[in-house]
Design a protein that fits this description.
By secondary structure, this protein is of the alpha/beta class. The protein has one domain. It is 34% helix and 16% strand. The strands form three sheets. A five-stranded mixed beta sheet has the order 7-6-5-8-9. A two-stranded antiparallel ribbon has the order 1-2.
Amino acid sequence: MVTLNGVVALKVQVRVCHREGCPLRLKAIRAEEEGLWVLPEHEFGLDVIALIGALRYQEQRSVPSIHAALRARDVPISERSVTNLLDRYDELLALRLSDCLRLKAVTQKLGRVVLSMSALRPEVGNQVLWVARECLSSEVLGAWSLPEHREEELVPRFQEMSRSLDVPVVGVVSDGQGPVVRAVTEALPGVPHQLRQSHERFDAARPLPETEPVSVKVLAVPACEPHAVPSPPAGREAFATLCAAALLGRELLPELFQFGAAYAPLAL
């Protein structure tokens, strides 16, 4: 996948349910976080699409000028791909939540909605591209380009989306931006909101620029009297390994099952 920060290799695990009677039987289910990076069947990230839209409609640049700006950032993209992504940007903003028939056709078969919200803030202008995607079907439900000072408009848009659906929203996945958290809290009270942990891991793994100063603050720790430290309960080290594996996004390995690890059923 091509992003503004370079080419990223995403390994997406696709699962298929074979249980009889399941509404998702034999349907490929992709990772929820995939839609926070890239649109289905696209090789360019959402950040590239957002920047192309901002350069076109906020700075009134032509396609050759946009292509030159991206190439100056070492983004491997052709002029034709810029045109295609600009068309995709227009298609995203042309999606109307008032198209109830389209929304019902996407969500009614599954009986529930797991919503994924992405916020793309380009480096130019003050517009933020918000993309709402349904995780179970990988369909884009809506997209809005809003100025930063109008981010509170997400609340009525979330409410309109919820009213347009015949099925309940059972969960939301996002990067945890403040406007999304407030919109989910007000428009979808009681709906679980999962923050995307890989976003922080991706930023933590990225090296610091050489021009960015690193400040270290040394705090004086007062001396304290030694005291007895209680020994950890038996088996805590084993479960610490399990917790570390979960935080790193690893699958439950066979050796972890001997410590009591198990897959918990999701109550959606």
